[in-house]
């Protein structure tokens, strides 16, 4: 069982910051990340939601990673690496990345890491080296022997590129080392690191290449159906994510061992984990691979309780998970969430459609839930507000005043932040763009689009002492200080 020093999520009143590591002024595990820890401690925010940390494709989306176990190489802080006492003096940063000049203690630590994580690390290291040799092409386009992991083809790669394979693995060891040092500092400040587990994995990934039998693929490795969601708030044609779908019958046959390894890995990195698209465990939207959008998909029953019961064997009967239960949510999804005692999510930007029964309205929030002003997929609250017509703005002001007594003259995003902090939900998460009072220029992602996402960065020095003090005062008023 993987232990965590924190109680399960949303069991008492507190607040946190939604800030992807990739949105730091200098993305990575170095000074900027440590500065966030300082800001959180000073402000009274006690949770940092970082989103997935995996190695991304060129679009930088952390929800379509080259591995669901590895860490993004760009997050290795080179300033820290340059002064790492585990290396011999005078060794360049690039050489250190490859393990050159590593002392005996560091080399011994690497060997232990490599043995402990071998179930994914060796496949990932081979995958990345072959991918480099193949000019970054998807593994489906590799020569048949490499695509199909034929023993002779793999032996040739290992003989020709054994040093490079080891270098990829060593880089992952360094990343793990830096992240765990950051996590140790977070724990010393009683700060919770909140991670993210995308339910699906990218088709072009080490996960699929090395575990084809666990996915719904044909003999050449190509999917006949892919993942997505039906038309919703974000898109009239739905979202065609394109991820291959799991073969849950095969996964169930071996007790969901791949899923258990995946959760164990996440719990070694984070204190809490949000399962993105939780409803996909109850049932998922399967889209024919040839369909141009998601409208031709259909619902297929998922593994449900059997998967969550398997995960309990890893984390214990109080799973440190949050269910991202947005979108098309049925009674079946709610029953599954509640059966395992998982907090769900509410998003205030979804609340004000005129429907008094809308579950995102503050009067309907449950204590054991997580309230967001918006998520990484939403516009900032100021950007959202400016997109509304005057009648919609009047409705928002009226409902915030009648339900929570919020001054209708309070500007955005302050009014929505006040609503989140005043919500009955035990955990209130504030996106960094809202904390900084920024507009649509600070939007992180627009679902269903491919260009311009995941590139916004927090301005240097924006998370300053003055802002921290203002936040602390607000958190105190709403009984959300640690």
Keywords:
alpha/beta, 482 residues, 12% strand, 39% helix, eight-stranded parallel β-sheet
In brief:
This protein has 482 residues and is of the alpha/beta class. It has one domain (14-74, 183-477): Alpha-Beta Barrel (TIM Barrel).
How would you describe the overall organization of this protein?
By secondary structure, this protein is α/β, with parallel strands linked by helices. The protein has a single domain, classed as Glycosidases (TIM Barrel, Alpha-Beta Barrel), CATH 3.20.20.80. The chain contains 18 helices and 12 strands. The strands form 2 sheets. Strands 9-6-3-2-1-12-11-10 form an 8-stranded parallel β-sheet. Strands 5-4-7-8 form a 4-stranded antiparallel β-sheet. The model has no long low-confidence stretch (mean pLDDT 96).
If helices are DSSP runs of H or I spanning 4 or more residues, what is the number of helices? 18
Can you name the CATH architecture?
Alpha-Beta Barrel
CATH topology: TIM Barrel
Strand order of the largest sheet: 9-6-3-2-1-12-11-10
The strand count comes to 12
CATH structural class:
Alpha Beta
Mean pLDDT: 96
Q: How much is the radius of gyration in Å?
A: 23 Å
**Residue fraction in strands:** 5-15%
Q: What is the number of domains? A: 1
